[in-house]
Specification:
This protein has about 300 residues and is an alpha/beta fold. It has a single domain (about 5-305), classed as Inosine-uridine Nucleoside N-ribohydrolase, Chain A (Alpha-Beta Complex). It contains 13 helices and twelve strands. Helix 1 runs parallel beside helix 2 (about 40-55) and helix 4 packs across helix 5 (about 125-130). The two termini are about 30 Å apart. The protein binds beta-D-ribofuranose and calcium ion.
Length: about 300
């Protein structure tokens, strides 16, 4: 049986790939959107565009327009002005079912057993849901996030974008008491990189979803490599989906994770207790390694399932 998920996202090139994979590998109960890579109206429109592209008949609910306490900040340098720069943009016919993602999250978890929360943007919606309905924490199957890092950050030397964009929300979510909490931070997503070969593999598949992904990657690769001079470009968000569907390709460690909400140089840092002693309670399974080759195979196998030309 496929895992049932609510996908909370801010598409975003890698969010788009996560949606393409989740649509095939999980039962998506609904998509909720948040301000992050781009302003909320754009991330919502992008999510709608992607549901149309992959033929996913689910509701899209728009959520938080801004972080809990900080002003909104976006990632135009990585994802362009629209959040999904690169491919030719088809007209979007669908519209959001509501502007109350938090209500959707709460009611879905209260009415359906064993729902997974998959969060691949700033954690604002999830934090608001947990604050308004603490009972949902014990009802879910678990939460899998892309966020933070057991190592260097990307927006700052110590902070990863999703946690940095709304550290107060992230702190609430890490402290909420989820029994199963999996974290795909930059330390693992940087092991799951794409390159020119990935683009050519997608073009060979030739189906419209794979070609759209290839067009996304052309932009994503060049915007990333300009800034980082790196070889492979991390495919962050799909890791949070894969952690649920294919946990065997990851290496996890139980850790205590706290979020720095104030530090002068470290705001948005995930402080991970790796000492192996001390009395901080474990609240997270941190991903430390991924089998990249197997992950890429799964990715390409999934993209192949979209009808070929
Ligand atoms: C995260 O930030 C966003 O730019 C990506 O979509 C990903 O969720 C990586 O730091
Ligand atoms: Ca994202």
């Amino acid at each position: 049986m496929k895992p049932k998920i609510i996908l909370d996202c801010d598409p975003g090139h890698d969010d788009a790939i996560a949606i393409m994979m989740a649509a095939r590998m999980t039962e998506v109960l609904g998509i909720t959107t948040v301000s992050g890579n781009a302003p909320l109206d754009l991330t919502t429109d992008n999510a709608l565009l992607l549901t149309e592209l992959v033929g996913l008949e689910v509701e899209v609910h728009a959520g938080a327009e801004k972080p809990l306490l900080l002003p909104p900040r976006h990632a135009e340098e990585a994802h362009g002005k629209t959040g999904l720069d690169g491919p030719r943009r088809p007209d979007v016919v669908r519209s959001a079912t509501s502007l109350d993602a938090v209500h959707f999250i709460i009611e879905t978890i209260r009415s359906i057993e064993n729902v997974w929360l998959v969060s691949i943007g700033p954690l604002t919606n999830i934090a608001l849901a947990v604050q308004q309905a603490p009972d949902i924490v014990k009802r879910v199957a678990g939460i899998s996030i892309m966020g933070g890092s057991a190592g260097p950050g990307n927006v700052t030397p110590t902070a990863e974008f999703n946690v940095w964009a709304d550290p107060h929300a992230a702190a609430i979510v890490f402290n909420a008491g989820f029994e199963k909490f999996m974290m795909a931070g930059l330390n693992v997503t940087h092991q799951f990189g794409i390159d020119e070969q990935t683009i050519s593999d997608l073009r060979d598949l030739g189906n419209p979803v794979a070609v759209f992904a290839a067009d996304l990657f052309e932009f994503y690769l060049s915007s990333y490599q300009k800034r980082t001079h790196g070889q492979r470009v991390p495919l962050h968000d799909p890791c949070a989906v894969l952690a649920i569907t294919h946990p065997e390709i990851f290496q996890f460690e139980f850790r205590n994770v706290c979020v720095e909400t104030e530090g002068t140089h470290t705001r948005g840092m995930t402080v991970i207790d790796e000492r192996g002693w001390g009395d901080r309670p474990v609240n997270c399974e941190v991903e430390y390694a991924i089998d990249r080759d197997r992950g890429m195979e799964i990715f390409l196998e999934t993209m192949r399932t979209y009808t070929a030309k």
